[in-house]
Amino acid sequence: MYLPSLPEIAHRLGASSAQVQLTISFYLIGFAVGQILYGPVSDRYGRKAVLLGALGVYCLASIACTFSTSVEMLYVGRAMQALGASGSLVVTRAIVRDLYSGARAGRELSLISSVMALGPVLAPVVGGALQTAFGWRSSFIALALIGVTSAAVVWALLPETMHRRVTEPFSLSSMLKSYGIVAQNPAFLAYLGLATFSYAGLFAWISAASFVLQNVYSLSPFNFGVVFALGAVGYMSGTAIATRLVVRIGLDRTIGLGACLLTLGGLCAVASVALGLTSAFTLVVPVAVYIAGLGMVLPQGIAGALTPFPERAGAASALFGFIQQSGAAIAGAVVGWLLGHTAWPLAGGVAIMGCATLVLWVLTRGVRRKAAATH
Asked: What's the CATH fold of domain 3-157+175-374?
C-alpha cells in the first residue's frame, strides 16, 4: 500500500532512495525475527490468543509509522509493524497444518494465497489514490484500521484449532530443541530452499519496482499502483491454477511447473531490458509470469515443509518463515543498493532467483519423493 509513496517519503523525510528502500528491508528483518518467537509460543499456548496479541502489536506500530518524522523513526516503526504482522502468517500456516496435511494442505494454502493475493492487487491502487489525495501518512492510517478490523474478526469468529499442544514448559532450550528437530529433516530443507529462492525474486521486484517504474519508465504514483497491481494478478492466477492441479498431480509436479514459469518470467524480464524496450508493460508482464510461478511454488513448498511436523507445526512454520524472509531481505537490500538509472538490478535479480529455483527443484527430487512416500 505504501509503495507508491516511497519517492515522496524520500523527499519529505530528507532521505535518499536507497535509505527509503531500506524501510522494506527493515520490515522483512522484523518479519523474520518475529516468526521465530511466534511459532513455539503458539505450539504451547494455542493459536487464537497469540494471533490477537500479534495483531495488537501491528496496530500500534502502524500508528507509530504514521507519526514518523525521520527515516530512522520509520525504520523502527516498520520493524515493529513487521513483528506484529509476522504472527499472522505463522499462525495461519499452523492452523492449516492443524487441520490438513500433504496435497490437501497444499490445496488449502493455495486457496488462502489466492485470497491473500487480492492485497497486492488492490493495495497499490488504494495506496496510489491515498498518496495523491492525502499524502504518504494516510496509507499507514489505513493499515492501522485494517489491523483493528482483522483483530475484531479473529476475536468473534476464529475457533481454537490446536488440540495437540507441546507439553514441555516454554523456554529457550525447548525452542531450540523444536527448531533442531525441524532443521534436521532433509525434505524440510529442500522445500525451504525452493520457497526461499522463489520468494527472494519477488522481493527483488518489490524493492525496486517503485523507483524503476516511476523514475525509469516515468509512471505517476497512481499509474504505478495500477501497473504494479496488474503484475500481482499473476500470483492470483498461479494460486488458482495450483488449487485445481495439486490434488490431481501432487505437490512435486505442481512445484515443477511453477519453477518453469519462474525461470521463463525472469529470462523474459532480462530480455526486455537487454532489448531496450521502453514500455513498462514489457517489464511488468514477464514479472507477472514469474509471480504466477511463485503462486504455484510457495503454497506447495509450505505444505511440503510442514507435513512431517503435526505436533510442531508452529515451530516448522516459524523456522521456514524466518529463513525465507531473511533471504528476501538480503535480496531486496542488494537490489536496492545496486539501483541506479536502469532496470538491470531488478530484472537480473528476478532471473537469477527463478533459475536457481528450477535447478534446486531438479537436484532435490529424490529427497522430496522419499519424504512423500513416508507421509
From this structure: Growth Hormone; Chain: A; (1.20.1250)
